Amino acid sequence: MDMNTFFNDLQSKVSQAIENSPAKDIEKNVKSMMTQGFAKLDLVTREEFDIQAQVLAKTRAKLEVLEARLAELEAKAGN
Question: Are 28 and 48 within one domain?
Fold first, then answer.
């Protein structure tokens, strides 16, 4: 028996054992419990976070331009 066949057979037997064991039910229950817990929290998706980060970066850039323009106008008005 070559090593590839041995490992494939071993993987198959381990998969069957997990499918027929309570571990599969535990995994489902833990996933369900975590999903319910996360649903109660006020979380945002990564996509929403990234969009807001982009909006904030654009707003900061505009603010810097406006601050520079204001400083320029104040300097002209002071002369």
Answer: no
Rounded (10°) CA dihedral 76, 58, 43, 29: -160
| H helix count then E strand count, the chain | 3, 0
Residues 24 and 56 in one domain: no
What distance lies between CA 14 and its chain's CA centroid?
31
> Is residue 12 located within the same domain as residue 26?
yes
- Residue 48's pLDDT band (boundaries 50, 70, 90)? very high
Q: Which pLDDT belongs to residue 8?
A: 81
| Mean pLDDT calculated for residue range 29-46 | 83
Q: In whole angstroms, how far apart are CA 6 and each of 3, 10, 63?
A: 5, 6, 65
